[in-house]
Amino acid sequence: MNTEIELSLSLSPSHNAEFKRKVAKLLPQASKPVEQLLVSIYYDTPALDLAKRRMGLRLRKQGNQWIQTVKFGQKGGGGLNARTEVEHITHGQMLELANIGHVEARDFLCDDKIATRLQPTFATHITRTLWEVEDKKGNIVELALDVGHIECDGREHPVNEVEIELKRGDVEAVFTLALMLARNFALLPQQRSKAERGYRLFEQVPTTPVGAQDVKLDPEITPYEARRQVMLECLRQLQFNMVELGQHEDDMEFVHQARVAIRRMRSADKAFAALPTDSVWNQLEAKLQTLGQQLGEIRDRDVLVRETIAAVEPTLSDKLRLEPIKKRLMVQREALMQALREDLESPRIGMLLLQVLHWLHQDPPAEAAEGKLRPFTRDALNRRASSVDKLARRWYKLNEEQRHTLRKQVKKLRYTAEFFATLYDADKVKKYLSSQQAMQKVLGTMNDAAVCRHMLETLASQYPETAFAGGAVAGWYERIDLESSQRTEQALEALKEARPFW
C-alpha cells in the first residue's frame, strides 16, 4: 500500500512526436524511454457504489501480467492528486478481492452486496511512453506520455496526456519537472482522471460549462489553509472551462465561466488580504488579470450580440438593418477567439495555470500566525460590507465611474459571503445574499448599458454604416437602463437593511 501523488497535464496530439524527441534533450538525466501497452478494465456495481465512495477498482494488463489496483482517499486538486493505492499481481484476468491489503477497502468490496454485483464498467486502451527521472536531491519521478482512448459500450473518448508521478522524495520535484516541460509545451492541468472520464462516458454525461461550487470549510483550519482551499476551487472552475475553449460550436458559457473564475480568484485574494502574499503571487495575479481582460473582450461581444441585440431585434428589425452590426461584432469575436486559441496552443496559459497551482501548494511562512478562522472571516466580511456601505450611502452623488466601483464592490461582497458561507447558518446566508440581488441587477444593467454604448460608438467610428442602427440599439438600452435606475431607491433600502449573517 502506498500513496500515489500524480500530476496530469493534457497535451495536443500534434505535439506528441516533438515531446518524445525533446525529452532526451531537456532531461539528459532521464532513463531511456520504455513503451508499454496498457489495457485497464474498471469495475463497479450497476448502482456505481464505488464511484459514490470515490473508490476505484481496476484490472490492468501490463505485458503478460494482470495487476489489480484499488484507489481511494482523494486529496489535492487542480490536477495534482494524492490517493491511497493498493495493488497486487493476480492469477490471470480475475478479481481477487480477498487479497486486498487494506482492511477497510477489502471489507467493503468483499461484502456480498458489492462483490456479487461487480461488473466491468469501462476500459482504457493506452500506449504509454515512460521515462524515469532522478534529480540531484535524489527525488525520483516517473514521466509518462499516455496516448489512447477510453471505451464504453462502443463509445470512445480520446486520451492524450502527460502524467508525472512521484516515486520517491518531495512533491516539489513533480512541480519542478512540470514547470520545466510547460515552458516548452502547451500543457494544461487535467482535472479529471481517466477513471472520472470513464464514468462520464458510462453515464453519457455531456461536457458542459462548469460553475463555482461551495467550499466546505472546517472551522478548525487556519486562514492560510482556508485561502488555499477557496482558491483551489476557483482554479478548478478556471481550468475546467479553459480546456474546453475552442472545442465547441457554442463556447459562450465556457468563456463566461472562465472569466467568473478569475474574478472569484482575485476576489478571494482580497478576502484574505490580511494574510501576507509575495512577489510571485503579485506577478501571477497580474497575468490572471490580463487573461480575464482577454476573456472579457469576447464576453462583451457575446452579451451585446446574443442578449442585448437579440432582445431589441423583434422591435427594431422591421425598421433597421441590424445584421451588419452583428456581423462586424462576430468577426471581431472570432479574431479574439483565434488569438485565445493560439495562446492555448502555446505554453503561455498552461504555464500560468501550473504556476498558480504550484503557488497554492506552497507551505505558509514559518512565522505565519495560526489564528482562528471564524474571527478572521468576520473581519473580512466587515471590511467588504463597509466598502459597499460607504458608497451606497452616497449613491446620488456618485458619477458613472464611482457607480461602476460600487457594482464591483457589491459583487466582491457576494463572492466573499459565498466563500465563507459554509461556516454560518445557511438560511441567514441565503437571506443576506438575496437582499443584494436587486442592487446587483440595477448596477449590472447600468454597466451593460455603458459597455453597450462604448462598443457601438467604437464600431461606428470604424464602420460608419453601422452608426444609425447602433445608435438605435444604444438608445433602446438607455431606456431599459433608465427604467432600472428608477428602482434604485428600493434596491438601496434592501441593501442597507440587509442583516449580516456573521
From TrEMBL:
Which top-level group of life is the source organism from?
Bacteria
Report what the protein is called: Inorganic triphosphatase YgiF, contains CYTH and CHAD domains
Any one Pfam family here would be: CHAD
Instruction: Write the lineage as a comma-separated list.
Output: Bacteria, Pseudomonadati, Pseudomonadota, Betaproteobacteria, Burkholderiales
InterPro entries on file: CHAD_dom, CHAD_dom_sf, CYTH-like_dom_sf, CYTH_domain, YgiF
A single GO molecular-function term is: metal ion binding
Occurrences of domain CYTH (ranges):
2-205
Q: Which residues form the CHAD domain?
A: 220-502
Q: Which organism is it from?
A: Brachymonas denitrificans DSM 15123
